[in-house]
Amino acid sequence: MDDVERRKELADFLKTRRRRLSPMDVGLPPGVRRKTPGLRREEVAQLASVGVTWYTWLEQGRDIHVSQQILESLALALQLSQVERAHLFSLAQHPIVPALLMPREVVSPFLQRFLDQLEPGPAYITGRRWDLLAWNRAAREVLGDFRALNEEKRNIVWFIFTDQEFRRRVVDWEGVAQRVLAQFRVSCGQWPGDPRFADLIEQLKQSSPEFRLWWPRHEIRGRQDGCKELIHPRVGRLLLEHTTFQVNEAPDLKVVVYLAAPQTDTAVKIQRLLRGELLRM
């Protein structure tokens, strides 16, 4: 992402956040009938105590200086969440990190053994770009065979948006994909100097109409605990809770762990999958 693209990303982010708020959300009178949804630029400028012209330039992607104090004011005016605020700061400050200086991501033998010991719970490890670096057999059996992915495409975002078998298998695919996209966007803002992010985004735009449609919305969220329901072709319904852990020694690595939901037969079904047994549907 060069400076022009980064400023455009910042401008688009501000526009989407402005348009989701109404005057009543921020304590302003509704005023006359509006042609477009959301706050007007002058209202955001008023709330953030900045000039209307200056804020207009910011939304136009012009090359202007933005101080930390102004960013704080904009975050408050637009009622940004903590994750959104961090994303705003990342886009505005342009923290360039040369890709050549980024350390190679390595999963230690201990971490691989840790994944294996989590079975029958599926688990995998992703890197800074959400590339799939390691997984256990349960993850392959339940989610899909990551080994079948071309090494350059071995990425969980790519897998979710382009793998048709996973799409058929997961219940509420759209909800799952949109949440992952919003979380992935935060990572993109944290590594603006890595051209591999830009390459992945362009390939996803070309390969997935949903990604192409949703990417301009600028939805972001932090990684959260959740629950996925799948209909597995061999064992039927699986209900899994999941969370994400950060590796202290390598903070770019994230361990995603799934556990069978309590009061379900999910764990038994996964164990039978691992034993190679077929169940009658």
Automatic annotation (TrEMBL):
Fetch the CDD domains from UniProt. HTH_XRE
* Superkingdom of the organism of origin: Bacteria
Q: Which PROSITE patterns match?
A: IQ (PS50096)
List GO molecular-function terms, semicolon-separated.
Answer: DNA binding
Q: Where is the HTH cro/C1-type domain?
A: 13-85
**Database matches in PANTHER family:** BLL4672 PROTEIN-RELATED, BLL4873 PROTEIN
What is the protein name given in its UniProt record?
Transcriptional regulator
List the source organism. Reticulibacter mediterranei
